[in-house]
Every structure is written in C-alpha cells, then in structure tokens.
Amino acid sequence: MLTEILSTLDALSAEWLTDALTTAGHAPPGITRVETTPMDGFVGALGEVAIVTVDYAAPTDLPRQFVAKCPLDDDTARSYAGVMLSYQREAGFYRTMTDRVGMDLARCYVNLFDPRTHHATLLIERVDGEKGDLLEGTSFERLHGLVGDLARMHGRFWMDDSLTELDWLVDWMGPTLRSGIR
Question: pTM for the whole thing?
C-alpha cells in the first residue's frame, strides 16, 4: 500500500504512522498512541512543523519522538513552495545525500514527495539541542561553528559534476534557468 502524503499534520494518526514507517522499511511494533504538538517557537510561512510523540506496544529501536513536516494546507503556500522547490530539494537531499555529506544529520524515517503537486511529508529524527531565536540571533562561537559546517558540507561537492544528475537539485547554470524558465 502506498502511504498517503498528509495535507495537514492534524491527520497524522497511529494507523498512518504504522503504514508510513512500514512502507519506508522500518518494522514498528504496534503503536498505541500518537501525539502531535506544534513545534514550540516555530512559525512556518510555507509549512507545518510538529513534534510527534509515539508510544509503542513493545520495545523498539525506533525513536519515541520525531519531527514531522508538511506544506501548509493552503494553495498560496503550496504555490510558493513549488516555485522555490523547497520540499523538492529537502526530500531529494534526504533521499540521496545524507550518507554523502560526511556529517551527523538527523535521520529521515519517512520521506514522501509528489513532484506534480509539491505535496510532501517528512518524518525525521528529533535532535535536542540549543533552542535558537531568529530575532536575538546567536553567539559568535555558535555562528562560527555553523559557518564551518556549511563550508564543510558544500565544499565536499564544490564543482562536482555528478550533482547535475540529481533531478531535485537546481542547476544554476542550466540553460532553462538562465533563460528564466525552471
């Protein structure tokens, strides 16, 4: 059975989660409870982001908490996400690149994306850490580390021609992009 791409995180149920995890190659024991809570302090202009807490019927190696993401159930937000290719790029990254970047990243457990509609649902590992504030910013030391991480990740693929073969990645030198057509 193909797992339905959620149009809203309010539709995330124990049945959906069991099906999605199973389809993605995981073997969840029975799921007895699922609680979805909007991520504290996160305001998404184009999508919903929530913490999903799961109670299992038996011991498992699967996480008890995930971060769930999907586009807002709004035609304008979906249109913007389609133009910016945000969900296409994120789904593609998790599908093809996480094992190539040489960094510890949140593991993706469910990665659903429809390129025709730009509907998507991602379920990734919840990683606890320092909570940021977009208005207050961060310390110089933290920013220095983040810039180093960005350089390490992007530098690994600098001028790598194999990237042009990825259907989800924007080819900034592609003839259609240079002519204003995506």
Answer: 0.84
